[in-house]
Automatic annotation (TrEMBL):
Gene3D superfamilies: 1.10.220.160, 1.25.40.970, 6.10.140.2220, SET domain, Tetratricopeptide repeat domain. One of its GO terms (cellular component) is nucleus. SMART domains: SET. It comes from the Eukaryota. It comes from Fundulus heteroclitus. It holds the Pfam family zf-MYND. Residues 455-475 are annotated as: Disordered. GO terms for biological process: methylation. Its EC number is 2.1.1.354. The keyword Zinc-finger applies. GO terms for molecular function: histone H3K4 trimethyltransferase activity; zinc ion binding. The keyword Cell division does not apply. This is [histone H3]-lysine(4) N-trimethyltransferase. The lineage of its organism: Eukaryota, Metazoa, Chordata, Craniata, Vertebrata.
Length: 475
């Protein structure tokens, strides 16, 4: 089976896989697939549009079930075909069941309608995806059984009944293949969806592709120009003809043993990728500082850092920003002479601290911390990794707000370059970056003009610009 520039093939031990049918260039979209079925999490049902999955204020409520919410009429109309039967089922049962049950029902309504293949380019029928039920531990199976019972009650008035065994398989495949969907700024997970073709792409800890959710465009004047919510599989670099396409199911910033553990638990797979078999990156992620501290000191600071990160997590949950700053600063001081700048525990503390300092609008301090963070990330991540791009964007904004416009502008440009590869020109994050790039450029030019007017020698040092900015403020 083929679809556009890729085809299904037997990937040996990994089972089915997808490979390129011709040479692919960096940033090329290999697959753009609308969700086969998707739901907004119940907990966010009133804050996220059930059609385009954007997080918005003032959503319009479905007058019939009072559960589904939409940006506007356009989104409601576009989402009606997927919501019609759900709307009736929620009204019948008086309440919406949990996320998994709603997704399973949406999947089966769709399945009944189109017999499993939504389009010519769908490579396998949705119910032929793997369920990995045999690998589920006892307590997970019990939870799954509760979902099956809940589903049968919810579905009871549906037209076609399904045997419990089949429903179990559907819940298993949702568990193995369901993808959490972020909001339009990539800040929060807001829902769960199924994308049959994407499910065929195997994992690699150092993948050649990345997955992005595009929320589509329904703002165009003509509805023929509207585009739906879809995932996009994009090439992180050049891919040769015949090469297998891979994505990473877990964050690369973990030691190989930890990644393998996560992959086994969540996806029932044993990773034998190059990074894992040769433990590439582990040395940097667990490195001691250059001054060669004693093994005991490393052990002590490692334990202290882990404890601190737990406390930080709790303080963040409580919204106690002051406490997060205090804990992180104390920990960074201890780590300074002992752990390297690429050590995972140091990066996690830096990440938490930069985020909170930005929230507190302490931009100069946030900028300094964020600069260390991206320097560490850059040594570990693939140069086109989206996480690196997002970190650069946050660091760039912190520098800009701290008045360090030139450094901020450079970081924003670099973030923009990465996002053009991983998210493409039409994603809202890329568009945000594009507008920040031009704003910082205008500010830089204005600063330069003031410098020229004052007839000072040309300089590009940020301290000179600092002075000029102060001068501008005083005018
Ligand atoms: Zn919407
Ligand atoms: Zn409704
Ligand atoms: Zn691996």
């Amino acid at each position: 089976m083929t679809a556009g520039n890729m085809e299904l093939f037997d990937a040996g031990q990994k089972g089915r896989g997808l490979r390129a049918r011709r040479e692919i260039i960096t940033g090329e979209v290999l697959l753009a697939e609308p969700s086969y079925a998707a739901v907004v999490f119940n907990s966010l049902a009133f804050q996220v549009c059930h059609s385009c999955f954007r997080r918005q204020a003032n959503l319009h409520r479905c007058a019939q079930c009072r559960f589904a919410h939409y940006c506007d009429r356009t989104c409601q109309t576009a989402g009606w075909e997927d919501h019609r039967q759900e709307c009736a089922a929620i009204r019948r049962s008086g309440t919406a069941p949990n996320d998994n049950v709603r997704l399973a029902a949406r999947l089966l309504w769709r399945r009944n309608k189109d017999q499993g293949l939504a389009s010519d380019s769908q490579l396998v029928p949705v119910d032929q995806l793997q369920d990995h039920l045999e690998a589920l531990p006892e307590d997970e199976l019990k939870k799954l059984e509760l979902d099956v019972q809940s589903f049968l009650r919810y579905w009871s008035c549906g037209t076609k009944q399904h045997p419990a065994e089949y429903i179990r398989h559907i819940f298993g495949l949702i568990k193995s293949n369901g993808l959490t969907l972020p909001d339009q700024r990539g800040l929060q997970s807001v829902g769960l969806g199924l994308f049959p073709n994407l499910s065929l792409v195997n994992h690699d800890c150092w993948p050649n592709c990345t997955v992005t959710l595009n929320h589509g465009n329904r703002s165009a004047v003509s509805s023929t120009l509207h585009s739906p919510l879809r995932i996009e599989l994009r090439a992180l670099g050049k891919i040769s003809e015949g090469e297998e396409l891979t994505v990473s199911y877990v964050d690369f910033l973990n030691l190989s043993s930890e990644r393998q553990k996560q992959l086994k638990e969540r996806f029932h797979l044993d990773c034998s990728c190059d990074r894992c078999s040769r433990h590439i990156g582990d040395d940097l992620m667990a490195a001691a500082a250059e001054g060669k501290p004693s093994a005991d000191a490393v052990k002590e600071v490692t334990a202290f850092s882990k404890e601190t990160l737990e406390k930080v997590e709790k303080a963040r949950g409580d919204g106690d920003h002051g406490q997060v700053v205090k804990l992180c600063q104390e920990c960074l001081e201890k780590q300074e002479e002992v752990l390297a700048d690429t050590h995972l525990l140091k990066l996690r503390v830096l990440s938490a601290l930069a985020e909170v300092l930005s929230c507190l609008r302490k931009f100069s301090e946030a900028a300094e911390i964020a600069r260390k963070l991206v320097a560490g990330y850059a040594k570990l991540y693939h140069p086109n990794n989206a996480q690196l791009g997002l970190a650069l964007m946050r660091a760039g904004v912190a520098h800009w707000h701290a008045g360090q416009v030139e450094t901020g502008h450079k970081m924003i440009c670099e973030a923009y370059r990465i996002m053009m590869v991983t998210h493409g020109p039409n994603h809202s994050i890329t568009k945000d970056l594009e507008s920040m790039r031009s704003q910082t450029e205008v500010e830089l030019k204005a600063l330069q003009q003031v410098l020229d007017m004052k007839n000072q020698p040309m300089t590009s040092s940020s301290s000179a610009q600092e002075n000029t900015k102060d001068f501008l403020r005083k005018q």
